[in-house]
Design brief:
- With 329 residues, this protein is α/β, with parallel strands linked by helices.
- The protein is built from twelve helices and twelve strands.
- It folds into three domains: 74 residues, Orthogonal Bundle (Arc Repressor Mutant, subunit A); 125 residues, Periplasmic binding protein-like II (D-Maltodextrin-Binding Protein, domain 2, 3-Layer(aba) Sandwich); 93 residues, D-Maltodextrin-Binding Protein, domain 2.
- The protein is 41% helix and 20% strand.
- A five-stranded mixed beta sheet has the order 4-3-5-12-6, with helices on both faces. Strands 10-7-11 form a three-stranded antiparallel beta sheet, covered by helices on one side. Strands 1-2 form a two-stranded antiparallel ribbon.
- Helix 1 packs across helix 2 and helix 6 packs across helix 11.
- The protein is globular, with a radius of gyration of 22 Å.
Length: 329
């Protein structure tokens, strides 16, 4: 038996016994959840959930007791980790941020600079990973704050806060035919080979959902792991891509051109992820304020104590300049 299995039980119970919804909230796959559940039930020698064919429909009497103990155990583990972090922070001034490549490369630098100027003694540590790995760092207590693109709602453990929005743009080589298309349409984009993120990337799924709803299927010529590789391939005229505008810098524009696609695709939303029960140092709160000044500490604390879905503030779509830690971004 392990902590992950206990967390899976609690999440399944809170999500109406839907394994698919639980997998989405836990940023993992449905087979992984089912496998861990079977392993736990095999170890215990009993069934935690009532099944109707292949669906979970409720808790067995033993499962109800196990769920209560699991929730209590997870709460206690969170408290212990919080105490340990407080002690560690007293011994060493350190703030660990778990984030993805795009956020670390294009969104965070200005905020990190402002934080370093405000708190020179504090050691800043960036841990890179995909969104699922960022969430695991927060749950394990190995990171204080997560910064990722918001594509999933909050969970029982992790609170997601929308912080900054960036319009999406189509990125093309210089003198590409799409530059002459007015207005830009999904059908026009779909005529050209597309370079995009790998299939497991949530941003890719978000963009492709728009094409699917329009009855279009773009031809993907290349999957890549990060925006830098994607842009390099576009510059060499392998195809075109769709990125948040913040990921296209002034230096890129010597080889590339961008076409606003905000009327076709939803904005890319950079968000803060924090654990609901783990302790946050004063340094962590300062970082939250620098990254998302529209959020008050009292509002965040209120949301942490509840079971709210992804929290939002009604903000206009940001421009690249809005990536700076300024009010209203």
């Amino acid at each position: 038996m392990n902590i992950q299995q206990l967390r899976y039980i609690c999440t399944i119970a809170r999500s109406g016994f839907s394994v698919s919804k639980s997998a989405a909230q836990l940023h993992t796959s449905q087979p992984a959840v089912s496998q861990q559940l079977r392993a736990l039930e095999d170890e215990l020698g009993l069934q935690v959930f009532v099944r109707d064919r292949h669906r979970l429909v409720g808790l067995t009497p033993q499962g109800q007791q196990i769920l209560a103990h699991a929730e209590s155990a997870l709460a206690e583990i969170g408290s212990i980790r919080g105490l340990a972090k407080v002690d560690a922070e007293k011994r060493q001034e350190r703030l660990v941020i778990a984030t993805t490549h795009t956020q670390a490369r294009y969104v965070l630098p200005t905020v990190l600079k402002a934080f370093a100027e405000k708190h020179p003694p504090v050691e800043l540590v960036l841990t890179h990973g995909n969104p699922a790995e960022v969430t695991e760092h927060l749950i394990a207590g190995t990171a204080h704050i997560g910064v990722i693109q918001v594509t999933q709602p909050s969970t029982a453990d992790i609170l997601m806060l929308e912080a900054r929005r960036f319009r999406r743009v189509v990125v093309v080589p210089r003198r590409h035919p799409l530059l002459r298309v007015k207005p830009l349409t999904l059908a026009a984009i779909a005529e050209y080979p597309l370079i995009t993120y790998e299939q497991t990337n949530a941003a890719r799924r978000q963009v492709f959902r728009i094409f699917e709803e329009a009855g279009l299927k773009p031809h993907v010529i290349l999957d890549a792991i990060d925006a830098d590789v994607i842009k390099a391939c576009v510059a060499r005229e392998l195809g075109i891509t769709i990125l948040p505008e913040v990921a296209v810098t002034a230096a890129d524009k010597s080889d590339l051109r961008t076409i606003d696609a905000g009327h076709l695709f939803p904005p890319s939303v950079s968000g803060l992820a924090i654990h609901r029960r783990h302790h946050l140092s004063d340094y962590a709160w300062d970082m939250l304020e620098l990254f998302a000044p529209q959020w008050k500490r009292s509002d965040i604390e209120r949301l942490r104590s509840g079971t709210a879905r992804a929290a939002t503030r009604e903000e206009p779509v940001s421009t690249p300049a809005a990536a700076k830690p300024a009010k209203g971004t």
